[in-house]
Amino acid sequence: MTPTADVPNATADRATGPWRFRGKIWELALVLVTAVWGWTFVAIHDAVTTLHPSAFVAYRFTSAALIMAVALVPTLRRITAKEILGGMIAGCVLFAAYALQTAGLGSTTPSNAAFITGMSVVFTPLLLLAVFRVRPAGQQVCSIVLATAGLALVTLRGVQPHRGDILVLGCAMAFAVHIIVLSRTSPTSHAGRLTLVQLATVGLLGLGWAQTSGEIASPASTQTWIALIITALVASALAFLVQTKAQATAPPNRIVVILSLEPVFGGLFGYWLADDRFTTLNLLGAALIVTAMLVTDVRTSDPVVKTSTRHGVARSRRPDRPAPAMPGWRRPRARDGRRAGPRRRAR
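Below the sequence we write its predicted structure tokens.
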């Protein structure tokens, strides 16, 4: 995968040096975040039996925003209008994704919802192509196909179109838009403040949704309180902070393939905690998704860097090596008419 081609206005410095190492750290952290999100399938499944989904979303994100606000008190004075605007836009898109997903789950199966939500793997590069004219490389197309097939084998058990399927399809589109929005706002914004604005926006919109529909209520069980605390602290505040940092150092196509691990972890926790069982096809799907991650990060050769010269553009295989001279290039002449050349050491 090309390190910087997928994110418009990204700098080439992210491909090498400390930026590359820092990006790998945040990508690994994002993998751990997807594991936490996979666990929340089991936790939320039990919690929403006593608390309506809209109220759960409102409490979860409002609590997460309060936690982030307390942690970021020293830096809140430096929040910029760009961070507020970008966070509000990303938060509105994120709320739309969760609202559509929650509403769709009322009239479709969890397996269909998980697979269709994972279609953001396909929507993200397509949106990048449609909006920014960023063409996915063959390597990216291969990883997208593998991840999509893996998601189908892991989560799909007989697709039958329902009204809920269409709503969840809109959810997948919203998640893809959210990834692209973060790729535009994260590199030039403070990750913590941007995350805070996102969480606050989702929480306030969730409270409005629950209040308007008359579904606001207090958690009725200790298990629901525990699920709310963990999802607010770890699966929301910390998780979206990690995602925001990862978006600032990695292209969106790679991010979306990492996020496709979420149903795999969800299935594993379902096996351990909810007595779910897997077929051979399910295990094959998990293997395909892991393969898609490996394909995404394979580099067959050193990156080609274009170096401008006096007579054109030369190509160098490594950034630390000078580009070869273009055909017909002549060494410039000095003022006295002689060929200019490297200085010799005085003896």
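The radius of gyration is 24 Å.
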